[in-house]
Amino acid sequence: MEGLGDGIRKLVKAISSEIPGPVPADKKPLLFTAQNVFNIRGAGPVINGKVQQGTLRNGEKVSVIGDLEYIRSFTVKEIQMFRRSLDEAHAGDECALLLDGVKRDEVKSCYVICEKGSRNFTRKFNALVLMEPRISAKTNTDIAVSIEINGTIIPAHIRFSPPLRVRGFGLQ
User: Fold this and answer.
1) Neighbours of 99 (CB within 10 A)
2) Is the pLDDT of residue 87 over 50?
């Protein structure tokens, strides 16, 4: 019976040497999602959000992506969590950022802060949309929805081309 256990250990060792393990969230490129932006008198806009992956450090150059375009690059001036300054924030940390030179209208909720060039985005994509039979739309070509990705709610419009044809539910 002892030989069987050794065989299983060898099999597991052989499989684990061939299949790479998952990359820890701290080792991935920086991804910070902005949840709120507050204007603090004397400090400027403070961005509250969560580090989804990677590590965010004071003095680091980051890019802001919003409305499907790069806004511009900024330097992290300060990171705070529970009113205490931090040198760095890791994946999973919810914190507040103060970026050097950012204006209040340049960063909004749902914007992404990342390393320059680490993110790709698109304006169009194909998706399978499963909808309940009761559709409350005025037209059969456009429906407003909210999409949740990684806990961030993003408003979107679904445009049907050709127009949606659902029989028996008011849309023909």
Assistant:
1) 21
2) yes
